[in-house]
Amino acid sequence: MCKFFMGLHETVGSQNSARFIEEDGEISILYGTNNWGAKLVLRCIPHAVDSSLKVLKFDVRNKKYILQLSSKYACLKSKGLNAGSIIAIILAVIVAVYLFGGMLYMKCVHDAHRMQLIPHVEFWRTLPERTKAAVLYAVHVLCGKLCWKSGYSNLQV
């Protein structure tokens, strides 16, 4: 952010110095240092067609410009959870029920102990190597001879 006065430019604050603050329900952005700066007050106008920026005052004591941005883009939007978040929550709940329910079942019905409490423990033990084999197979099938060229050439007879 810079000030232009009588043909001269002066830096008031930079993106690196920006800090968000909340005062009395308003969100503001502070730019600059303790010696010089600006405070940009964000004012939400939900159905505004145009945005406006006003200089409200210059605080001489603190050497800060007080500005106000009135715009629909200054409104906080609360959209709730998106589809990915909902799927992740459902998946986490299913995994938790599977693990805890399976452990309870293994303990009560089969009187299992330690690692044997984990439902389908052999499947989980072999999963990393099976995943590696599946990925290598997929890469081999998809790339074919384009990815790996043979180090040998045919002999000319």
Task: Give a description of the structure.
By secondary structure, the protein is of the alpha+beta class. It folds into two domains: 2-74, Cation-dependent Mannose-6-phosphate Receptor, Chain A (Distorted Sandwich); 79-126, no CATH class. The chain is built from two helices and seven strands, in the order βββββββαα. The chain has helices at 83-110, 121-143; strands spanning 2-5, 8-11, 19-23, 26-32, 37-44, 52-59, 64-71. A five-stranded mixed β-sheet has the order 3-4-5-7-6, with no helix packed on it. Strands 1-2 form a two-stranded antiparallel ribbon. A hairpin with a 2-residue loop joins β1 (2-5) and β2 (8-11). It is elongated, with a radius of gyration of 31 Å. Keywords: Glycoprotein, Membrane, Transmembrane, Transmembrane helix. It holds the Pfam family Man-6-P_recep. The chain crosses the membrane at residues 86-106. InterPro entries: Man-6-P_rcpt.
